[in-house]
Amino acid sequence: MAEMSGTSTNKHGFRGWVNAALAVAVLTIGTQDASADLAKGLDGLSQGQYSLAKRALKDTKGADADKAKLALSKLEQEVGNYKGAIDIAKGLLKSRDQEVSLRAHAQLAELWRQTGRYRQAKDLLEPLYKKNPKHLLTRHALGLAYVNLGMTKEADVLWNLFFDEYADGSLDLTNAEVQYFVAEAASHLGSVTDASSSYEEAIAIQADFHRANFDWGHLFLSKYNEGEAEKSFADILKINPKHPGALAGLAAIEVNTGYDAEASQEFIKQALKVNPNHIGALMVRASLETDRGEWEKAKATARRALEVNPESFDARAVLATIAWLHDDVKEYEAQKKRVFDINPKYSKFFHIMMHSTDREHRYEGAIKLGEEAVKRNPKDYEAMQLLGSGYLRLSREDEGIAWLRKAFRGDQFNARTLNVLDLFEKIIPRDYVMTKSKNFNIRYHKEERKVLERYITPTMEKAYADMVKRYGFTPTQPLTLELYKEAEHYAVRTVGLPGLGALGVCFGHVVTAMAPSVGNLNWGMIMWHELSHVFAIQLSDYRVPRWYTEGLSEYETIRARPEWRRENDADLWAALQDGTLPSVSELNLAFMTPSMQAVVVAYHLSSVTIEYIVAEYGFPAVVEGLKLFAKGLETPAVIEKITGRPVAQFDKEFRAHLRRRLAPYKGSLFLPVKGLDDLKALEAAAKKSPKSSDAQARLTLGYFYAGKAPEATKASEATLALDANNHIALFVAAELALHAKDADRAKKLFSQLVNSGGDGYDVRLRLSMLAMREKDKKAFVGHLQTAKTLDPEKSHPYEALAEFYNQEGKLEESMRELESYVMIEQMSLGPLLKLMEYYTKAKRWSRVIHFGELALNLDPAQGKVQLGLGKALTEVKRFDEALYAFDTALLIRPRLRRPALAHLGRAKALIGKGDKREAKKALRDVLDIEPENAEGIELSATLK
Questions:
Q1: What does the pLDDT read at residue 595?
Q2: Residues of 336-345 as b/e, b for ≥16 C-beta within 10 angstroms?
Q3: What confidence score (pLDDT) does residue 596 get?
Q4: Four-CA torsion 32, 37, 42, 44, nearest 10 degrees
Q5: DSSP 8-state code for residue 3
Q6: How far, in Å, CA of 299 to CA of 432, rounded?
Q7: Which residues of the chain have pLDDT under 70?
Q8: Are 35 and 64 a contacting pair, CB within 8 Å?
């Protein structure tokens, strides 16, 4: 295949940003000689004005009638009336207009392919192509039919003909459709640059050539370049905002980029409203349902797709995935056979499966699926990339890199392949080193290794030994821990692309995380948490649901250090009050949400659930649960077996436990969330019950959440007219007064809220802020002290009081507040350094040691931490530990600004140990660096 040149234009010059999506668009007939009705119909079809287009096309008479019918077939196809579209296309096969006849054959073949009649499409087109070998649309349609049947050699012959004709100059490259065919040929032959250029040329010639934009977008998607894909799909929706394929594609992008399931579902809904038979939309929905473990829903969606296309390979892949995950070998083999009997090279079948098996922690199984994909299609470079990533996740790096190199040789445009290879072939050999401990391979940045391994290795070995004993299980080796100095390196190592929100990830054999130097993280908590996943994943034979393993990891970190607890009890209380707390059987679904806050709550609820099981039934019950998951049982059955309670009873008893646990929040102001996003329904309810203060209050809150201040103001006034002490209306009115900078009214309303029994954490924060504006220090402190009792887990009152007392010169009180603050905020180093500094000056060495040890879990490479800790340990005569701290300080890179301080500290600790010889050496080091160091000179004199 020869490379093309001369067709490229600036890739982004004419493109604009719009909410984007994928589309299955149609090839349109040129309108230069069309009647007014035909032109109107084609424009309407292009713009998604389907009713208008349908009328205009039906009204087209005379010489253009058959062209209009062909366009009408395409319209019916776009809205999902495939039978109607097929009937119209069949009626045009013998059109007197030869071009219409040829296009009708291609259209019928397209519809047959879309409804699973791949062989019929091939049989229809082959004789037609023999008679018309220069008809490019027929050639393209036949090539696609061959692709569907796995006849790649025959298809490649056709694709290469486009290249040959391009090279000899026989193609009219001013024609958008011709440019599209060239792009398609290049795409199918793997020439990504040429394909992209020609797609762009086609769209530059004809802006509403939706199919070119659609396939261009899909080309980008196949290379994990969602940003560029989005631009292509955006241009479709810019012209046709109703395009079902475009909407379905946007749903896919929402899942791929940020896993915004809610937004994805909305786009799916819009797509299916236009075309209820759209396979693309149905497949995105099935994928979401599979990811959420909604097996029956996913199967129903896949079967719905099979009603449209009984041979949909992707729908059968979904059914095969669910069967495989549930050990239904017979069903899995039946679905696989059905697909490969038609297309023996459809290796994408395994890509779909590997996506789900990866989410279900079935990493070893995913490897086997990838190997079968490559066996089916030796040129499946995507499968090779997935295989390479899979082996890397099992700590089998040589095999992983080998597969990635094979993938790159075949496809140099896959972003994940390129990123991971760059990391492992360039960055890791240059910047990182792998060390070995008793049970782990640990990868550090070369500059950080000497410091980090002094803390991470003993911590992880301690955690490992403890878990082996309690779980009665020894994980299969090798086990690899990796800490990356750059967040982007960590993200690429983990998912192949930059931008990953999680602080650490476990794959059963490999834990990846960001190093402490990245900042704002607690490596101790993260690594302990991730190590627990190793035990949960392996002991469950890679079948543990996410809620169980996350809850167990949270439990393990709390067990290790109580301050490593999540502070989200208030969120659980709100969910309990709002009726949105999920059953344990639905807890997994709570993780599949675009809201980070909702995911945080899911983590906490899972943690509290595991804590409850341990407290009520013992830790062995939790371990038994992992073993039951290994046998293929799911959450409801596992809960019943380890607790002796059916899910409904377990939920009831667990909720009773939560009410006891969450008692401090009882009586606090509660603002509901559930059901307040539908303003029309709220308005109707308020209108229906004009004397109901509850109905008016809910409308008030709905307006408030929607940011409609004037409406919220009016509604709050109406509510308060019915009930002067309605808590919701008082809160909203007070908030609106604050926004309007009416502090006096806000204070009056918040005070009324408190006096009427509507006290709450947020209310007290507002009152404290208003008190500070009035310089009422006593009230400021009082409100914050009350806020602490209303929500014991919130850190802000402690932080605000610490700052206030500091400004007042009350340092002891300030430090007391800061001590509470750091026990809540486990990833904040600055306050720990303040505490160490203060207690060092006060010579309260036990406090310095306590907070210094907490700081080590955030960043052991902090010179201030090591020097301060070393000094305090020396003062309490823990000389060996002091030496460890000072030695660590000297290993920090970049070096300490004054390394003499560490040498001086070593000298003092050595003197304390009675080791004068080594102390003298340390003092020589001090004076070599700082010859005028008075303390060093004085100490040296005492040792002579």
A1: 65
A2: beebbebbeb
A3: 67
A4: 140
A5: P
A6: 45
A7: 1-34, 258, 594-597
A8: yes
